[in-house]
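Q: What does the predicted 3D structure of dolichol kinase look like?
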Amino acid sequence: VLLGAAHGGAPRRLPLRRARRARRPGPPRGPARAPRGSRPRRRARGGPLRRGPFLPAPPVQDKVHISSRPGASSGILLGATTLPCVMLARLIQLSRILPTDPNGAQEFAYLEMQYWAVSISCASVLAFFLWHLRQSANNEISKALKYGSLMVVLYLVTFLLFFLLKTDGGLLAMTKNGYLLCHGVAAVILIKHILEKFPSCSSFGEGLLVSSGLVVYFGDILARTLSKMEVSASSGAFIHTPGTQSEIATVIQGVLLGLFLLPLLYKSSLQVWVYCRTLGKQRTQAIEKRAEKGTGSAVFYVSLLVVLLFLVPSWTRLVQGLEVHPFVWVLNYMFTNSDERLLLCAYWIFVICVSIRRFYSISKQSKTERILLRKYYHLVAVLIFSPAVIFQPAFLDLAFGAAFALFLILEMIRVWEVYPLGHTIHQFMNAFTDHRDSEILIISHFSLLLGCALPKWMSSGFNDRPLAPFAGILSLGIGDTMASMIGYKYGVLRWSKTGKKTIEGTAAGITSVLAACSILVTLLASSGYILSQHWLSLSVAVTLSLLLEAYTTQLDNAFIPLVFYSLLCL
């Protein structure tokens, strides 16, 4: 105002902020601005502060960065309850034959120990999540913390009650508890490794399911190994492994054990090779990279041969007493009185070749939605697996194990870019990925295969529910596929405003699974099976499983078959 009056004009109003700034006394200005290179740079709008030469470096954070799969909820409640519910359903199913089976008590006791191993693993991983997420203020994280805390408390209280009621104390009880706690520690180490090496590849619930499942599976391998070793005479007091495991299950366990140990052997062999190449020379990053590039493929193939030719047969000979190589045993099994198996193999090869060639060309040339293209593969899984479950169930167990081993080898070649197949496999698999696959791991084919295989593997041995081995094929191949296709084309009413699942799709999935069950019951009755499950309980199991498919944002190929299987076993 004063400036305007001094120049003889009308008083000029300044904006309120500038007027206040003008009235506010401040320090005197310097004679000159600092040189450009010595001034701290300004922070870009919406971006982080860029450090100049005089700004200190940000402090190093020692916390493990946990990042879940984008677009998915935490899934902690579902991941923490799925495997314990599966084991509990198996216990209920096995308890129905205890009065009549003389070996049922030993198998029940071992399955009960596996149940507590799963529970302790889930509780330990939940405690690990709580320890890392307790300082987050996100609403989703807060809900996960609440559910996780509740689950940990329930697990610990239940285990304490079981320990007080069923054990007599002493050294045996302490040894059993130590063995179970080792599962928990191993699960925490494994989930930490998964989240560090494969960030954004899974949600918290999916990581919990994978880590606890792998720990229990390898715990079973360790228990069977210790029970056969002479040095483990003391371990026989608390590890009672049933002697009813088939040779097919032992061969599958041996091959998977070798393939899961293959990364350790490959990495250690590669490091030894690089060290020997650079021994006595100046080790630079360029030399290490060139050595690893030139010899990585050869080291991988040599490590694979060592595992398959030496490690796997040694373990199968120790555990099952196989005198021949597992691959020779598989060939003898296939070509001995096996016209039906050879015809089934020819049928599988024909269906797989035709479907891959057809769908791969469609994915490259057509504008078909990726989700529909992937559901066509679910229908192909129905065509492949359904005849084998009815006519050759034991051979299907072996085929599932061979397919999973092949998928593991191909994924290792793709991830490590092993010459000459790494780049080709990567280009081929990218044609069938979706938003749930990351740039590091492609897990869709693994989840579909295991979703169909796990109910069949767990149904080996005693099974009074003929539809239980079909849990993965029915829920994924028929229910999930029909729900997605009908919901995509005709769905109008959505379950939620933000979700894509529709009520019409869920109704179509439930109807299609019930129709498929009626057809399967007729086929199984002609083969000698008797349906011991009421249609009301079957309808409840189908409805709950398809409602879970409509509600969850987790990897449905992993959770829905296990939930459906546990409901069928009740």
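A (community wiki): The structure tokens above were generated from the sequence. Confidence is low (pLDDT under 50) at residues 1-63, 231-237. Residues 245-336 form one domain.
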